[in-house]
């Protein structure tokens, strides 16, 4: 009779109990990007599932990531993105991650990936800035107050000597609550701005994580000064069509995601041929792996567009699973 097969289940409270540190998160994401850059991973373009008569959709992300021990993991994450969830006191993005043994297909873990989605997005933003922003960047402008926004600011603050952090979002109550949470956790003053321009103009690092109903060019190209790094990743584009024309370099997390689905900050730029594989400077993983240069001069304007990587989800899922096994956190569920 075959032996029983079990897999680990990590729910939301389990993930909170793991208390992944900033350095653990950044280290796992940077290592996964380097593996991607060296061609050691498998990644498929995301897919979208769009229910009828709702203002939202599901993203399905898939990939295979080796690890330092054993064969690594194949992973599939399904994350909902529903813009009106704040009215129901729910996160706009909720996710589940499945990890499998890539050699046998045996299930290894089922993980509440809502926090993972937020953490890995913030970590990719921060690692992108590590290689693409000026080392002396001091002013951060951030538009958007969703879950990923918190980790953007927190992890950028970890890597840079920021003297000013400005935040803005559409709803007054959301931006003030966001600033209060950051002030509590980062132990520093946060500047709440009333509009996009006062948030972005003159900033060294400009992060756009807005929640728009439809594409609208609210992020003006003229606000990206020489030497600045722009990181737009809203689901609906908020940038002007000439933004890529003004950049010295455009970098992506994965070019394969550029044409995946109808969404994304540079969706129109790709469709109209303003951004192509030939005009793309590099994927971030190639830069992290040392195969292509990142920032080369203090005056370069650089744009980093990240759509979100399954590999980043798998990297943090693997980190969480290893730490959970070490600390005895989580439940064992029988599969067969």
TrEMBL record:
Cited Gene3D superfamilies: NAD(P)-binding Rossmann-like Domain, ornithine cyclodeaminase, domain 1
Source organism, top-level taxon: Bacteria
Protein's name according to its UniProt entry: Ornithine cyclodeaminase
Organism placement in taxonomy: Bacteria, Pseudomonadati, Pseudomonadota, Alphaproteobacteria, Rhodospirillales
One annotated Gene Ontology cellular component of this protein: cytoplasm
Gene name of this polypeptide: ocd
Pfam family, one: OCD_Mu_crystall
Organism from which the protein derives: Hypericibacter terrae
């Amino acid at each position: 009779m075959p032996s029983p097969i079990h897999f680990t289940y990590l729910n939301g409270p389990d993930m909170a109990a793991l208390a992944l540190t900033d350095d653990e998160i950044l280290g796992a994401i940077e290592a996964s990007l380097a593996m991607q850059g060296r061609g050691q991973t498998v990644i498929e373009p995301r897919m979208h599932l769009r229910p009828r008569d709702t203002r939202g959709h599901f993203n399905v992300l898939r990939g295979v990531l080796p690890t330092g021990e054993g064969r690594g993991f194949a992973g599939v994450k399904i994350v909902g993105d529903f813009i009106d969830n704040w009215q129901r006191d729910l996160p706009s993005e909720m996710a589940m991650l499945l990890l499998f043994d890539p050699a046998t297909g045996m299930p290894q873990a089922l993980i509440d990936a809502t926090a993972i989605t937020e953490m890995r997005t913030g970590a990719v933003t921060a690692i992108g800035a590590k290689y693409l922003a000026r080392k002396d960047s001091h002013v951060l402008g951030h538009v958007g107050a969703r879950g990923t926004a918190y980790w953007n600011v927190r992890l950028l603050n970890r890597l840079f000597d920021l003297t000013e952090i400005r935040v803005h979002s559409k709803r007054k109550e959301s931006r003030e609550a966001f600033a209060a949470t950051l002030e509590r956790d980062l132990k520093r003053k946060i500047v709440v701005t009333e509009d996009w321009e006062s948030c972005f103009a003159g900033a060294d690092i400009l992060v756009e994580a807005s929640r728009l109903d439809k594409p609208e060019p609210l992020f003006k190209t003229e606000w990206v000064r020489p030497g600045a790094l722009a990181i737009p990743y809203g689901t609906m584009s908020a940038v002007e069509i000439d933004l890529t024309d003004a950049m010295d370099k455009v970098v992506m997390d994965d070019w394969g995601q550029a044409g995946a689905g109808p969404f994304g900050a540079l969706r129109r730029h790709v469709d109209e041929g303003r951004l192509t594989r030939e005009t793309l400077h590099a994927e971030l993983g190639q830069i992290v792996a040392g195969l292509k240069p990142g920032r080369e001069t203090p005056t370069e304007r650089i744009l980093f567009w990240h759509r979100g990587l399954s590999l980043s989800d798998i990297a943090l899922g693997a980190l969480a699973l290893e730490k959970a096994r070490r600390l005895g956190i989580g439940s064992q569920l029988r599969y067969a």
